[in-house]
Design goal:
Length: 225
């Protein structure tokens, strides 16, 4: 009986932690697109708009492709950039929505790992990038996160050794790349997760911060390049 009670208490605290993380990574910013009434998001934050005033939409998009480190899933349909943190439950929900569209050949996603929520975010992100098959590793980790959210049991994700003096040269290099991903979001004035940046056929680059449904995503697809 005591053991059952202890297990219940541990799971209760874990679920409370999930709720806290959901609030932390899904918190909306003032620059976020309006997602109410299933309307497709079309606006961009002021700093993205400012950057686009200095260069064309295409040049800024190409710069993202060269500057950011990402893991690409899919090879058909329009390309979007998804900034994701292993400690962001809403990021996982976005991942599952995108996975369906990727499997249907309707979308290509470039997952940009960032380390913004917890100290464990960086070693977990590095572990994904340094895997022999980063796509497979990302899929495996997302599966573990999903299972954890369903069962209430903590996910024990692989972590690279990133401590100064112990990290390998490869790990140091990948850590700097993830820091560059973090810096990109800060430069465009985005501090919340998840974030999806997309290129519409018309207008400026678009930003989605927070949760978006599959219905909303599907409605957005025809507007993307």
């Amino acid at each position: 009986m005591v053991r059952i009670l202890l297990v219940f208490i541990v799971r209760l605290f874990f679920m409370f932690g999930i709720v806290v993380l959901l609030f932390a990574c899904a918190k909306k910013t003032s620059s976020e697109s309006d997602l109410q009434n299933n309307s497709a998001p079309t606006t961009a934050p002021s700093d993205i708009a400012s950057a686009q005033s200095k260069m064309t939409k295409r040049k800024l998009w190409d710069r993202m492709g060269k500057q950011l480190t990402f893991i690409q899933e899919g090879s058909h349909g329009p390309i979007i950039y998804d900034f994701t943190d292993t400690n962001c439950p809403v990021c996982h929900l976005i991942y599952t929505t995108e996975a369906r569209l990727i499997n249907e050949g309707k979308l290509t996603v470039r997952y940009v790992p960032v380390a913004m929520i917890k100290p464990s975010s960086m070693p977990e992100a590095v572990a994904i990038l340094q895997a022999k098959d980063p796509v497979g590793k990302l899929q495996d980790i997302e599966q573990q996160i999903g299972d954890s959210m369903k069962t209430g049991k903590p996910a024990h994700l692989p972590r690279a050794i990133v401590a100064i003096g112990l990290a390998s040269q490869e790990t140091i290099k990948l850590t700097k790349k993830i820091e560059t991903n973090d810096d990109f979001l800060q430069k465009i004035g985005v501090n919340d997760l998840p974030d999806v940046i997309y290129m519409p056929k018309e207008g400026r680059l678009g930003l989605i911060t927070g949760l978006i449904s599959q219905k909303q995503f599907t409605a957005l697809l025809p507007q993307l390049q």
